[in-house]
């Protein structure tokens, strides 16, 4: 008597799983949805964005956006603008700024754009 082929063993395996509730097993293997990105809970972390404005000491050889932009990764343009507007108004960056100019510089440094109708107030 010959040993069962790989195809035959695979068929038996799948058949057994179907009998034991394969849909439930497959459902448990579905990837979990990614939670939506949001502004950092600790807004003090956005102090790293002050480097982009050239108003604090920047480490030589390190682009200033490497600390700021990852904090905003995954956010839509409007969310980035809101997040940074809030940080600027709360003076999280530790400096007094011209809000529209600073916001524009920070947002564009991270490859985002401010929606045309957005106002940081």
Automatic annotation (TrEMBL):
<dbReference type="InterPro" id="IPR027923">
    <property type="entry name" value="Hydrophob_seed_dom"/>
</dbReference>
<feature type="domain" description="Bifunctional inhibitor/plant lipid transfer protein/seed storage helical">
    <location>
        <begin position="39"/>
        <end position="120"/>
    </location>
</feature>
<dbReference type="InterPro" id="IPR051636">
    <property type="entry name" value="Plant_LTP/defense-related"/>
</dbReference>
<dbReference type="InterPro" id="IPR016140">
    <property type="entry name" value="Bifunc_inhib/LTP/seed_store"/>
</dbReference>
<protein>
    <submittedName>
        <fullName>LIPID TRANSFER PROTEIN</fullName>
    </submittedName>
</protein>
<dbReference type="Pfam" id="PF14547">
    <property type="entry name" value="Hydrophob_seed"/>
</dbReference>
<dbReference type="InterPro" id="IPR036312">
    <property type="entry name" value="Bifun_inhib/LTP/seed_sf"/>
</dbReference>
<keyword id="KW-0732">Signal</keyword>
<comment type="similarity">
    <text>Belongs to the plant LTP family. PEARLI1 subfamily.</text>
</comment>
